[in-house]
Queue: 3 jobs
Job 1
Amino acid sequence: MVDFMKMLLVVLSCIMCKAHVVQRKISYPHPPPQKYYRSGNFLLGVIVSQTLFVSAEITFTEEPTQSLFEDLIVVTKNYQHILALEFAIKVMNENPQILPNITLGFYIYDSYFTAKWTFFAAMQLTSQSERFVPNYKCGMQNTLAAVIGGLDSQTSFHVAITLDIYKIPQLIYGCAPVMNDNISGLSFYRMAPNEVRQYAGILSLLLHFRWIWIGVLTMDDDNGERFIRMVLPGFYERGICFAFIERIRDMNFVTDTNDILISGKRIHDKIMDSKANVLVAYGESHTMWYLRWLVYLSAVVPETATPKYKVWIMTAQIELNSVAYQRFWDTEMFHGTIAFAIHSNYLPEFQQFVETRSPSSNQEDGFIGDFWQQAFGCVFPSALVGEVDGDICTGEEKLDNLPGSFFEMSMTSHSYSIFNAVSAVAHALHAMYSSRPNNRGSENGRGLKFQKHQHWQLHQFLRGVSFNNSAGDYISFDQNGELVAGFDVINWIISPNQSFQRVKVGRMDSEAPLDQAFTINEDVIIWHSWFNQAQPLSLCNDNCYPGYSKKIREGQPFCCYDCIPCPEGKISSKKDMPDCYKCRDEYYPNKKQDFCIPRHISFLSYEEPLGISLAFIAFFFTFITGFVLGTFIRHHNTPIVIANNRNLTYTLLISLLFCFLCTLLFIGRPQNVTCLLRQIAFGIIFSVAVSCVLAKTIMVFLAFMAIKPGSSMRKWVGKSLGNSIVLSCSLIQAGICTAWIASSPPFPDVDMHSVMGEIVLECNEGSVTMFYSILAYMGFLAIVSFTVAFFARKLPDSFNEAKFITFSMLIFCSVWLSFVPTYLSTKGKNIVAVEIFSILASSTGLLICIFSPKCYIILLRSELNNKDQLIRRTC
């Protein structure tokens, strides 16, 4: 750090030396009394911030002595303010409609950016022009109508304190001073709109380009502190975060060079290290001098990395200007800056007026000499200076050859404000004297002498002033004494040859509501080439693209976040969404989860392969069952049909026939009738079928038990027992179904969540408990039937059905036991397919296992279908 400071101190010394082409050893006890005067019936006092009086000490550690230099540094660009005032006076005096027979004059004093000389200049304006005697007026003198100034808030504040004593109107063309509770309200008029609109415009600009991670630079003064305390919280509430907020020390007087260099190096490093590509600079006219130091530091410090260019957002008081020692400093860093400026308009006559300016033709101008020397880097010969080194000023140098940071030929916004201030005072004076019918002047040796007026009388006419200036803009003040106007949004274009151009790219309207006042044409903005002419981004991290949502990083501002994928079933359709959201019920997320796709309606229909296949199988086995039934009917008198209880056999076959046909109720678009019948029909028909199997099993068991000698089972064997079993078991299931219909019957429903991308039309079971009760009851009948058949499977008879019923019930139970977990784990229309398959499989198992052996004997082995075979015993 010590070596770094040594190097920068030497650099600063060299800068100050090279800033002046002509070296002059001077030591002013106070600045020279610069002023510019032109007589008139009414005078406008003007206090400008034109010259900086610098007195600096730099200690060189290599030498025990100190280097002291004192000099006047002219802010050459501010000289246009003087020309704007003179031009405005000329326009007013040449207008016969404004104050006829009255001439406006002016006094211009320099404030030197210090309180002492600002108070001195303000007191001079209230004294006689020949001598400085405050509060004393003697003899004939011109009347001071109003004071215009100053450019910086402190200058305006010091002037306002003095003028408030005399009630002289003050028109401020720069920053308004910050008033605290200990100071009574000072009377002044602002030639700038309310800054609330500027703040709203900056916020709208940031939100328009989605610049949410920014750096902030302010002056370390009351205005800067007010900006931080009152404006930035509003930015934060609208989603703007701050990478850093730095306060810039005032550089009007270089009293501690070491501290300034250290502070500048720290701020420079913070800017370069930050991810923020946008910097908001809030300050006053001289803020640019410090900002240019930041640029210079990146060039003179060897260890500094390649500079990262930023998008600067400048407030209305900051202009691109330079002082003499910054003549050759690079301004490329400010190329592409977006600046707010008080609304101004083009005045071609002003440029013509400026082109005629030269030291030889305007010798009464007390500022033009110093301006000319520092602007062109030359010196006018003078006997007081003695021998000089460097270029000699000829007075023929051209102002339009100066860089834009030194001087502009077109009127700047501050100069335009001065022009409007002069016009406002002239119109107010005209209104005041026009309101006095007896106000007649009398001729004397000194010209027209009007009735004496008091300073306070002009206030009411200034507050009510309303006119269109020569550029066509409407000029008036609101109830707070602020100009009713908007702000222009300016794009700074700086060419490689350091030429400077201001291009209007937007507007902050004064009449529209704040949330609608901002407009910008981003297509005409020229960004710095470092951004490859693409719109710059200023984010703490990369955007979260659609399909992802933000997750705030713990311990960091909300603008810093991570990106996490959306959970299943949710999407995010825009960048940087705080959370993912579900699609509407009619839609579902795509694979990337960045937009919603319309769902298609899904149900098991006859038009799709699965529905066609199941329907075909159902009809096929229905036909087979019908064929078996027909075969048994044709051979109903044969022993094998008679031995197996013909009535139960026919009942079982008819129930199996309906079991196959009931599957057709499950295929097709769910309707009220089909939803109500499908489970009820399935439950009752299957109960009948299983009851028949149970009855046949019991009848086989009892038949073999009854043939034993002395058996008491013989009285139970008969048709009535089988019919009773079928009827009683079926009625129990019918009762369960009736209770189901009465309490919570099935109904058509829509399932939008089970299957991605589908709206499943289904039958809601109404009561799941009742549905599983039906299944449980059928399972109970099947288990009982299986148990009885299992024990009767080895009874000695060639036509014993027990062994076949055992296999059929084994298949039946296996199918429906596997149905339950499969049903619960299946979604969408496949649920219906699972149930149909279970019905078809279990029915087919009963049909094949029980009736295929009998059909084989009836159709292919008819010789076995006789009574001898029926009564034959196995050995």
Job 2
Amino acid sequence: MKEDVLKFTAKEFQPKPMTRRGVLSTVSQLYDPLGFLAPFSLKGKNILQKINKVDDDWNKEIPPGLIQLWKEWVKELGNLDDVLIPRCIKPTDFGPTAQAELHHFCDASLSGIGACSYMRLIDINGNVHTWLLLTKSRVLPSKGIITVPRLELQGAVVATQLHSILKKELNIKVNQAHFWMDSEIVLAYLSNEKKFHVYVANRVREIKMTTKAEQWHHVSTSENPADIASRGLDCSKLPNSMWFTGPTFLMQRNIQSRLQNDRKLAKCIADNDPEVKKIKEVKLTKTQYSTAIYDKLPKFSSLKRLITSFAYLQQIARKKSWSAISTPTVTQLEYAKQLVIKITQRKHFWTELDALHKGQTLPATSSIIGLNPYIDKEGILRIGGRATKSTTLSFEEKHPIIVPKNCHLAKLLIRDVHNKAHLGMGYTLNMVRQSGYWVISGTRITKDIVKNCVVCKKLRGSFMQQRMGELSEDRLQQTTPFTMTGIDCFGTFTVKERRTMLKRYGLLFTCFYSRAIHIEVVDDLTTDAFINALRCFLAIRGSVKRIYCDHGTNFIGGINEMNRQFTTMTNEEVKRYFINRRIEFITTTPTASHQGGVWERQIRTVRSVLNQAMSKYQGQIDTASLRTILFEVASIVNHRPLSTMHLNNHEEVPLTPNALLTGKVESTPPPPGDFDSEERYCKWRWKKVQAIAEDFWNCWKVEYLDNITKRQKWTTSQSNLKVGDIVMIVESDQPKNSWRLAVIEEVFHGQDDLVRKATVKVATKMLDSKGKPIEKSTVLQRPVQKLVKLL
């Protein structure tokens, strides 16, 4: 029958070139998750570390001084077949287990750090068996201050980590756990409560979180198997060492006497130990009084935490113990508050306090001389004032405590009062004074706190704004009518077809340059209706280069549908034709209706005219009548003057969009009836018509273009949003304190380097146990006018 053992195979190792890359590849091939070959692999890792320090070229041959060491290590790989490890930690002839113990050994040297764990089993007959369970070896760190005690302490940390792993993974009930090391210095670190420097303090705290000081014992270097893991050993020598079975004293039936003798060892720290913090005695002068405590005040973010911490500190100072403290009482909290106030006043008003204690007058340069200050029986500086004889005011209102202006306590007092109601600056300052405090320059401090309060920004924060942007190039270049067009839908209109009442909508096209409009009737707000109306418009007005629109679903659907049809074309000639005449669609930022002011203003004009036209009809109208009305409305709007410069001059003809579209100055003829049938223009006058149209173009540039360059609002620049800013998204259909929070992910700078829109990532409340979002966060694009900046 084959043996039930774990073994390593040397045949799997392929020869590699003697370069840095080849050494790393060979060492990495040694798969040993439990660390049975940790002493042997440590020697290979040490060689690799030495190569890294000498040269950083991966393909260069290793230095001559290390070639012999590497060849010896590779030669030892052939002895891996001789290392046989029983897979079962308990022998077949071993009786029922009466007690199971874990023994962890750790050590460090100038070659590396090692730790190993053994299972010690005792059966009902008193037989003892020990075997290696898990090991870990590490090379020395390449950075930082490296001393032997620090390395030994790091080895102890590795031992506690092995204990945590075995305690979690083993299905055997462990009765005891012991830790062994040969460093008396580290054992002294674990048995004392002195203040250490950061490196030692952090690792001692980590060890004490898992173990107790009573579990740590001393062992000589000759009996410490971890010494093999920290110094390294050839794999041919491992079976004959104590590596797999542990030291001989573990095989004894009773090791309690050894544990008792170990506890009698003196575990004292030397006075000159460099890892122990030195306590300096400082004699305080008048100007240094309470400076050490005062400098700690800015570490507290709220008045409640500050006072509670001082109350606990007073308990510790009285009882001289950290373990015998309890929840502070009201009296203790009040005394702690008085202590904080006195420390602050003595820092800022030392000269005034000294003068008042001596019965002298205050210096003329004192900032509180006008408050007539005095010292109460508690030693606190208060305002004397002129309302001493008042019977309606309380003592705190008549003689409030003086708080300096440039101190952290003033901010905490005002913030504590403000957080109770989150009201304005005047209310907060009045409540502070009613509470019995007079803060020097309190108005300025209160204004800053209210201005930077996140809760107040969420409740009453103003919307972001930015200076009105420059006019786009499409509105300034001379083009034929409707080359650059903006579109939008408006309505609804109710029409009657036979006995059915239907809804109809208007689709308005406006020219960016001539400001002319064109209106089409659409049956609904679907993609098909939009595409059909667009085709009718193109058939009448000709080709269009760019179309601007908002994020309406019918517009987005029409754009996607036309793009889809364009990509499916197979005829190259047809495809080339559409490439040359393809319309470019440009959409505005979502929810940014002000960015479509070009067509929004025209819709307002249409509505004002349309209301008058519709009022002439009594009863219901059909679709054909609605289309006629909308065309008449478009004609009326297109005949409006584009400027007001010549309205009072009867000799000058005002410029209108119709004049640019048709070249005719007269307005739209009246409905059928009496009309003049005389032909106004003949074919031979076409040159004159062209000349008049050119004059109109020039007149438009002079009269109209100058009027639209003036900004009506948003005339000043504001600070730009930045990536990482916390904002609140304006949602008009939700109450303000229900608006969603978001973080700025991307900002878009205009040609003037001002940010007018941004991409935001919406915050989510669905988080896992680690605080990470469960679902993918929503990403939106919004104008700055729809955002409220919080942080």
Job 3
Amino acid sequence: MAPLTAFKVWLKSLVGKRQGKAPESGDMAENAAATAKALQAGLELTSEGIILLDDRGRVVAFNSGAHALAHAALADMRGADFWDAIPEDIAESHRSAAEQALRESGSHQFVARYPFEDQWVEYCLRQHADGLLVTLKDVTAAHRASRQLRESESCNQALFDVHPQAMWLFDVGSGHVLAANKAAAALYGMTQDELGEFFAAQLFPEGEGAAVLASLPVGDFHGEMRLCTQKKAGGQPMLVELACSSVQWQLRPAVMVSVTDVGARHLADAHLQRINEELELRVGQCTDELQRSRSELDAFTSAMLHDLKSPLHVIHGFASTLAERYAATFDAQGRHYLARIQASTHQLARLMDDVRTLTYLPHMLMAPEQMDLVPVCQRLMDDLRRREPGRQLVLEMEPSLPLVGDRKMLVIALACLLDNAWKFTSRKEQGWVQVGLKADPASGNLVLQVSDNGIGFDAAYADKLFTAFQRLHSSADFSGSGLGLAIVRRVAQLHGGQAWAVSADQGGASFFMSLPQGADLPGPENLPA
């Protein structure tokens, strides 16, 4: 009565056990109904869709899952041909192949898509003595994941193939090259198919490939960089840099190799190294030559200053004697000449002193110490007042001006700055000089400022003030060697700072020296040359 005799016998025995007796002929109708009900209940227990067919392919029984998954147009598929019960387009697509497979192997499986529902259903047909068993399973999620995986693999394959970096993969077990991109084929001078016929060790010079591959770590690894030699299609060697990483390629453990031809770079590096060595040699030679030239210049300067001192003393002595003994016998013109000689000898002596100071400043050992500038400025100002007792100049300072610096150098610089202020305020009825310290927030340095109300200078020539022998005023109007501010700048540089000047709109000028403090102050080992 049903195609699955064994299944029905089991159900009949189950019903008989529940009734406590074996089925008799008079109870056949009742037992058949019970059997059908039990069969349907059993079909509904499974989560998959199940359709039972007789030996002619007609539907004997089905569960609700099968009806939903098959999207059957018939409310009750019993008695209908299976291929008529499912959607027509699916039957047309798969019937012929299914019937042939069932005749040959007794089973067939296919996946059908329902576009409207965007659903994929797997049909599995299995033949047995009484008919066919058809199971249906919703495989939409798996199919989507598989499709995304295929799309991802396709995308990765495309990216791998067109990537400008030469890359190839080889199988961990066999060492056979599994894939190579276009850049790798171009690098080795062969096609991608030709490269795919190689083993990884064949891309290295004889005997070197096995050692390189054996040195790769076992298991997962990434970014193993190494410099080695490989060979191109014609056997031409090339120096390459390899980056190796373990990957899964089509479910196989593999190693991806990224290859960079560094032969040109290696040659360039070697050439650059040679150039650097030559430059270092030339710089060393130039430094030695500069040191020799500087030593010779220092020696010449020292000798010149020493040799000039004696004749200058002689000139000064004779001029003083003439002024003491014979000034009364000279006429006005003679006395003028004598005064010019004495002024020139004094100017020359001061110039020699300034040249000596500027020359020997770089050779002085830096000895930073905590000091107060107030007593230094007062002593220097007292010396200036003794030279010209009739001058009135007010010195304005805070009660204390503490800083860290080399005392000898800062005394020299302050002497130049105060002498400069004394000189250029000489035409003022009431001159003044201000000395102060302020912190520079940007650099953290202390800034020494010396300001006066003298005649000032043209701001357009501010950059020339600190250049040796550069004068913005005539020596006839204001005496001087033209080296004072150059000395100030040199002292600032030796302290690791700098010097600059600002001219006031209403006359006067301010001169500044930035002086690093503490750890920023240079030591003897790194003083500027």
